[in-house]
Amino acid sequence: MEGPFAFLLLLLLGGGVASNSVRIINQSDEALVETLGRYNGKKLSPGLNFTVPFVDRVVYKQTVRERVLDVPPQQCITRDNVSISADAVVYWRIVDLEKAYYKVENLQSAMVNLVLTQIRSEMGQLELDETFTARAEINELLLRELDISTDPWGVKITRVELRDISPSKAVLDSMELQMTAERQKRANILTSEGERDSAVNSAKGRAESVVLDAEARQKSAILDAEADQKTIVLRAQAARQEQVLKAQATAEAVEIIAKKIKSDPHAREALQFILAQQYLEMSAQIGESESSKVMFLDPRSIPGAIESMKSIVGNESIS
């Protein structure tokens, strides 16, 4: 009985020793190993690893993937003595597992306290309004300062984001009143500017209308004058042409009558009658003229005129 029991005990002890010597490290994880309580730089990488039982001991195992640190809200005082509450989220990862374990006792607690301190420091340098408008700049400053401060701990800060900045209720009420007043002022300014622009546009419109009306009247007067001038010229040309045609017709008629008188002695009396009739018609036209007021006609001059015409006709017939 003792033989099998001893063999079984040795087998169990051997299995336990073997199981303690085999270490499996997952992907993206690393582990530190101390030999007899002393770290000699031995680090377990992902995969199957072997250690010396009862001599080597895994003291620290962590992932090297990027992690998120949720920073709780923190009361801060701005440069203009306004109390606000700010919280943040920090993205970080371990780049040196040895420093993360041996350079700081509690890495995550140390990082939280460091982030809170940096937030209070940065907020204390800004006024309340700047904390809302310069959030990107604050994130950059926090990232740079935290990355420098955590470098001795083997930690790399990849991103810092201020999540929420909340003033107290009294400050919020006063900000709301200020924003309401500001919006009302902007509305009044926009209204006054709109009324001013409308008045200016109306005045410009009236001025342009007056100018256009004056230009239209001037152009109309010029066109009327040109039209009147053209009408006068056309009337003068027509009158001159009419006189020329009448003179040509009269000359042709006299020539025809002269020829007729030469060939027919009885046509002389008819010519005398026509000349007397034309004399009377000419006198009537002179009397109807607008420029004539009074016309005196001596009846005794008619026979004399006729006799003169007779002599002219007689001479022409003789010639």
UniProtKB/TrEMBL annotation:
SMART domains in UniProt: PHB (SM00244)
InterPro entries, per the entry: Band7/mec-2_domain (IPR050710), Band_7 (IPR001107), Band_7/SPFH_dom_sf (IPR036013), Band_7/stomatin-like_CS (IPR018080), Stomatin_HflK_fam (IPR001972)
SUPFAM superfamilies named in the record: Band 7/SPFH domain
A Pfam family of this chain: Band_7
Membrane topology: Single-pass membrane protein
Name this protein carries in UniProt: Paraslipin
PROSITE patterns: BAND_7
GO cellular component: plasma membrane; side of membrane
Sorted UniProt keywords: Membrane, Transmembrane, Transmembrane helix
Family to which this protein belongs: Belongs to the band 7/mec-2 family.
Gene3D superfamilies: Band 7 domain
Subcellular location per the Swiss-Prot or TrEMBL entry: Membrane
Keyword presence, Transmembrane: yes
PANTHER family in alphabetical order: STOMATIN-LIKE PROTEIN 2, MITOCHONDRIAL
Record domain Band: where: 20-179
Principal subcellular localization: membrane
